[in-house]
Amino acid sequence: MTILLILAVATEMGYLTTLLMIIMFAFLIIFVSYWTLVNLNFKKAGKIVTIAFTILATLPFLSFALEDYFFFKSDAKKLLTENQITLTDNFEIKSNQITGLSDLYQKFELEISLKDKERIILQLKNSKYFQDSVKADHNLSLKAGRGLTNKIYFDYEKNEFVCRETYQNLKIGYVSDYDIITIDKKNNILTFERINE
Fold first, then answer.
1. In the prediction, which pLDDT does 68 show?
2. % of the chain residues with pLDDT over 90
């Protein structure tokens, strides 16, 4: 406990300090509950309460560690809908990866129907955000600037794919959402990437 306290006070790493404080608080509740019940001669109740509190304390950390596995079709649809793309037919989640804490990066791949693929490609090519030429070093976040922004859209086409990029900074002090949605022309794969910068 002392080591955790020293680490929490000594470090100025926001997420690490918060995480250490939560661990210390959970440990304190478990320890005090067990110690109180044992001293009141409720040893069996002390063990049960300790086990229950330990399970409750580890659930948030388990859900964070396993969030790649708790990604459902409704989550994919929600992220696409935020970028004005809807899937009407059934689809399959091929992969989902989430990395990072403060600088979150998420990438998932969906196998969509041919009908949805053709409709989305047509939607992006006919959108008012579509541009025929794309510079190799384009960066949507530089166009947005540093302040609060409405969602900025940028659609373009290359030989292998059609792409929609969006950028939005909703709150001062919070990371922005930079989304890249790519529809492969050769197969029915839609790739979504979210970079929180």
1. 57
2. 35
- CA 29 to centroid of chain Cα atoms: 30
Distance CA 83, CA 81 (A): 5
How far is the C-alpha of 193 from the C-alpha of 55, rounded, in Å? 33
d(CA 90, CA 36): 55
The two three-digit tokens of residue 106, written as one number: 């998420």
Angle at 85 between CA 169 and CA 108, to 5 degrees: 75
Q: What is the largest CA-CA distance in the chain?
A: 77
Any residues with CB less than 8 A from the CB of 170 and at least 6 apart, and which? 148, 176, 177
Neighbours of 46 (CB within 10 A): 18
Q: Are 196 and 176 in contact (CB under 8 A)?
A: yes
Return the domain boundaries, the chain: 2-65, 73-196
Calculate mean pLDDT across residues 173-191. 87
